[in-house]
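Reply to dn_fold:

You asked what the input looked like. This is it:
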Amino acid sequence: MSNKSYLGLGKVLFNTNICHIDGNDKIPEIALTERLIRKKASGEWPHHALMYFQDKIHEDILISENRDVITPLEQEEFANDHIPFFSFIESKGLEIYSRKYNRKIKFITHHLAHAYAASFMSPYEKAIIFVMDGAGSKNDCFTEYDNWQEHHEEASFFSFNQGKVEPLEKYWQKFRPSKFNSPHFFSEGIGSLYEKSAEFIFNSKRAAGKVMGLSPYGKSTPFKECYSFLEDLNWSLQFNGDDKKSWEESKNIQYYQDLAASVQNYFEENIFRRLNFIKEKYPEYENLIICGGNALNCITNMKIIEKGIYSNIYVPPFPGDESIGLGCANYQFYNDTKIWNKVPFEKQHGYFGPKSSIPENEEVKSLFKDFKITYFENIEEKTAHLLNNNNVIAWFQGRSESGPRALGNRSILASPKFPNLKKYLNDKIKFRESFRPYGSSILHEYVNEYFDVPDNFDNPYMSFTCKVNSNYKNLLKEVTHINGTSRMQTVRPGQNFKYYNLIKEFGKLSNIYCVLNTSLNIMGEPIIETIEDAKKFFEEVPVDALIINNFLIEK
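and this is what came back:
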């Protein structure tokens, strides 16, 4: 191992993040700005996260950074034109984290950072890495393209071989202003199309997941290319509200549903075409890794499996921009040490949150001294009984998940047999739109019994929507979408032993080795990070119990 350490700065547009990799143990620690300041998708310069890592900074540290669309220094200089930004970071003693003061910081292009984040956890020794998102670095970050008009990364393909990442193919996009003199800029990018559609339907470009969830309700109309499609939309019908009630009462719901279906189908067709092209050009690769924000489209991911273009497909635990800090840090780590180790599915996990997010028992007892708090040696068995009696449980364990999906450490859990569970969660706890499905977690050894998937199928990060087998459709209806699929998570003992045992104990009682699993938050807020966050959530939200470590906490 290396005596050095590696710091990756994800200074991205949404949810800035910092990753530290200790060269001695290669275990990342990731801090997300949104979790620290409790503001969803915050693009604030990550000084809160950097303060957290201050004690890890020493002269042997290697620092690298990325920001999507423009470079971090360009953004910092732009900020300084409007506010005293550089004076601010000087006052915090954080100059080392800006290239204005520290020219040793290495800039990593956006899609390359995504690729190195994906390679860090790869279960394959050799694969094609496919990166696609709304927009990546502009072409003047690549010296061979200096004479082009300004374009941005749209999609990239890399080869991956035992840690080494090399570029194969790159697609570019150019943003142009709308001909209608609106504030919109459109491109031919597929990821950008999805973002703009989310902005049209939900008044938020961050709502791409909602567009995916809405798409099965609509009727698709084919179209030929993105720019003219966006230009031809009737933008007077764009949703301009900011709450669930006004959206659900909109007279344009059918229009939104059809738009979502059309965009999803166009997205899929273009993905399939590109993957077929790459497979034909590089036939020696049997494994595919998908990353970038578009890798969160679990409907498309499952259809890629069904198409059989590649023998094996993997999506990392947090394929979006939450992984940029990890990608930057891993780029430096691998290129400095040439150390890489395959991570088999039995050991896959996404729990890289701050180590300080792991609560000590004494902290829990002190913070919750005014609640009824009981310690159980076998908290999994106790929680299983609560779930079997239709209690809704807030489950808080270990280090937090570093991505947008709860994977059994920061989860709200319930029994799928809870009558009208989805409506109850939407009305009382999560406050989500009624069309949106809920995910589930299932023991890996039961996946083929419950779902129509390939043998020994792994889905540890809810990356694929899977068709529920006909004899389980009624039993799992509360975690099944309108199209007969569930965005489920497979759980193995080596991935999360405590969570595995909880589902196993619940299965013994209910004969259902599957639980509803949704993130420990309410709509519009980040996932809970600390026990202080958990206490505030528990005080405000009517879940029946909160489980932290081996403690049952009740009101």
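The first strand starts at residue 5 and ends at 10.
Hope that clears it up.
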